[in-house]
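Model it.
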Amino acid sequence: MIDKLVKKFKANSIQHLVIIFLVFALSGSGSLFISSPILKALSLEESISSYPLYIFVRIILIIPIYQLLLIIIASLFGQFNYFWKFEKKFLKRLKIIK
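Modeled.
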């Protein structure tokens, strides 16, 4: 099973796979952690009365924060090139880059 994950994520080894998962986990957790203070600073928590709309706005805010944190944290772990390929694929899907 682990070998399938190594192949799927195109990791060099099991240790590399662990680093990849760690970067994804830290980026996801960090983006959730950072989005709440940003919403408070922009006073959006008080101005949005509808909870589904609040969740939608928070998700829209989390996406760019996650992408930025992914590259920063990947760089700290020495995995910039691996995650930059991942990032370029994401940006191509959004038609931001060609």
